[in-house]
Amino acid sequence: METKILLPEREMPTRWYNALPDLPTPLAPPLDPQTHKPLTPDQLEPIFPKAVIEQELSPKNWIDIPEPVLDIYRLYRPTPLIRAKRLEEALGVKCRIYYKNESVSPAGSHKPNTAIPQVYYNKIEGVKRIATETGAGQWGTALSFACGMFGLSCTVYMVKVSYNQKPYRRSLIQAYGGEVFASPSDKTRTGQAMLEKDPDCAGSLGLAISEAVEDAATHDDTKYSLGSVLNHVLLHQTICGLETEKQLAMIGEKPDYLVGCVGGGSNFAGLFLPFLPRRLAGEKVRFIAIEPKACPTLTRGDFRYDYGDVARLTPLIKMHTLGHSFMPAPIHAGGLRYHGDAPLLCNLVAEGLVEAEAYHQLECFDAAKLFLRTEGFLPAPETSHAIKGAIETAKRAKPGEVVVFLYSGHGLLDLASYDAYLGGKLTNFEYPEEHITEALKACPVIEE
Ligand SMILES: *Cc1c(COP(=O)(O)O)cnc(C)c1O
User: Where would you find the membrane-spanning parts of this chain (predicted)?
Assistant: First the structure.
């Protein structure tokens, strides 16, 4: 039995799979934040390029990947699918565990899969600069890398707690040529207002989004780019699942469980969406989303319309949410601290087609340690959630079943978190129910 299942480069998928037309219940439309009327595509034009807006709403099942994008994908794609034999042995399970290793990209995570096409579409529409936010720094790194590839400038608003916790992520963004500001910053009105209220504000992803959107909306040559949540991001990430499908077919395997960690939902959706048609056709394959107990969006949030950011600048989207004013506990999986999730993923959770589980950060680090010592790779704290989920799934699985999880990124720039873990300094945070109830009161009430 092979350990490493490598897809030949000529077999790399040349189209992305768009799940929108296949959803049993259509997505609830995004709404204008002021009028609460469905948004028209032209309202998005100040912040996104046209090609991206078209993909956001596309009724087509397959979308061609442009050649200049494929050309950069080939630097690290196809990525390997690996049989985690030593992990199976250590657990004493009789199922087979595989992981799709997206940590081999230049930026060290799955995020370049969407950064590259997004920058490409901006470039062909004449955009000169892209503004964005980053939580743990992974998205900022990926976008800065992709902007460099196509010769665009890149401005990154980095959540202040990560900016201080992860100085090397910031260095890497800068090494690729991007500029980085700790958010809240004094560069935007939103940031200035927050600093006036609370000079020590540690920031949040929702707040950093507000700053980046404001930057893009107030500069003609600048657009905004989001690294997760939106339909077009999930679309670009389907390259992961499409490759996995081919790799499993090469060795005559079929997945029984697809597992991934969820921050905004893009890596997990990228893995399982290409398998959705099989599931809808009655095949037995389960999709399992893993999130932190400190940010339990899918497991404890409400499924309702909410803003994507603190300043209420983004459209209203129907999703599982903890409330847009959610201020997360400083857990180390910075990429998993967003108050909402991709509407496409939430739609499928609401349909019962996707299951969700939440774990504490300490048990996830335990899982990461076991993985490191059996499989050799050091996972990002976000990825440790997928590993924990895959381990629990494998323990429940029947002999001979196949568990596949997405290995979303390496942790080589997260060693400060491992230091805290190995030094016994990490604690768990359970998000209090009162906070959820309180934050949800600030959500708009929309009649549907
Ligand atoms: C950003 C990130 C995540 C979470 O984002 P999704 O959109 O849910 O995929 C998970 N793992 C890593 C390594 C990340 O960088």
Answer: none
